[in-house]
């Protein structure tokens, strides 16, 4: 089975733990202080920090994410969705030989 067949929007939940760990490590937060739906606004993350998170995800997962996607980074669950989309796009590009 190809990687892109494994990843679907519904499957974004498989990235929740990794994204949560990146958020906690990047912003020195306790994992106990947030769940997948805790709004980043409540954690005090501003747009600059969302750009930082986006860059961290790109490096960690070796994907490219459009800067406009930072608006979708509102909580762990939505960030995992952005990641799943980027991984799907990366896999599609690899499959087409790009």
UniProtKB/TrEMBL annotation:
Pfam families assigned: PP-binding
Q: Which InterPro entries match?
A: ACP-like_sf, PP-bd_ACP
The residues covered by the Carrier domain are 10-87
Name the record gives this protein: Carrier domain-containing protein
